[in-house]
Write a structure and sequence with these properties.
By secondary structure, the protein is α/β, with parallel strands linked by helices. The protein is about 35% helix and about 15% strand.
């Protein structure tokens, strides 16, 4: 196991050399959406619209923001999670409404969601506890009935699937974490997955102050001209983190197998 870890770190070290040698680490070209998308497709994740960000918490907050959650709104969620999940709701000045969890899985109980929906409810936020998928068919059916977006906190569920569907392709939004102790890491980082091009484009803009960096126009003075059409955040991923992530992604299947082997041996 030690030799395998050393081999992985050697890859990361080589991958990081190029952005470190640059004078100013910025976001491109190492972690543009095309790069991460191609690698993810090769690794069977089949995620069509990934938006890279600098933490899993940023991904959840960005999802809530794109979903239109705002002051005074309510979000049905679970209390059995890292505090960061529900802090993101508070960051939108909204109210977490806690549903019960299932005894066997620790996941949010679909049977305890619907009666908590009120006119103030704007989203349902679920957490795949320890990476075990929630009952997404039931949850999405309830959300669809009430015209509510579903946000999945899949911090521990990268590489998992639900009824043959990869995490990141099921609901309106799925949020992965790339923090140090996750399946793969960028040191710290995250990925917001959307299921349509419109929300993807909002994510691209709002992760960096409302600016679409892909469509900036060079000016005669040498700097880029752009219009800020909406407010955003400083949630983009830098090159150094991106390089580590791209080096680690191909090893995700091996990591998953190692975790399953460890779990089955206990």
């Amino acid at each position: 196991m030690k030799k395998e870890s050393e081999a992985v770190m050697e890859k990361e070290t080589k991958q990081v050399e190029a952005p470190v040698r640059k004078t100013i680490p910025i976001q491109y070209p190492y972690m543009n959406e095309q790069s991460i998308q191609n690698v993810m497709i090769k690794q069977q994740l089949k995620i069509p619209f990934p938006v890279t960000v600098n933490s899993g918490t940023a991904a959840v907050h960005l999802a809530l923001d794109i979903a239109g959650v705002g002051p005074g709104d309510e979000v049905i969620t679970t209390s059995l999670t890292c505090a960061a999940t529900n802090h993101a709701i508070l960051m939108q000045y909204a109210k977490p409404v806690f549903a019960d969890v299932q005894y066997d899985t620790g996941n949010i109980d679909p049977e305890d969601i619907e009666h908590r929906i009120t006119p103030k409810t704007k989203a349902v936020l679920v957490v795949h506890w320890a990476g075990y998928p929630c009952d997404m068919d039931e949850i999405n059916a309830i959300a669809k009935k009430h015209n509510l977006p579903v946000i999945e906190d899949a911090a521990h569920a990268m590489g998992a699937s639900y009824k043959g569907k990869p995490m990141g392709t099921i609901s309106d939004f799925t949020c992965f974490s790339l923090q140090a102790i996750k399946h793969i890491t960028t040191g710290d980082g995250g990925i917001l997955c959307t299921n349509n091009i419109q929300d993807y484009q909002k994510g691209i803009r709002r992760r960096w102050f409302g600016i679409d960096r892909n469509h900036r126009i060079p000016s005669v003075l040498g700097h880029a001209d752009y219009d800020i059409v909406e407010r955003g955040f400083k949630y983009h991923m830098n090159d150094i983190a991106a390089a580590i992530g791209l080096a680690q992604l191909p090893d995700l299947p091996n990591t998953g197998r190692s975790l399953r082997t460890f779990r089955e041996s206990r």
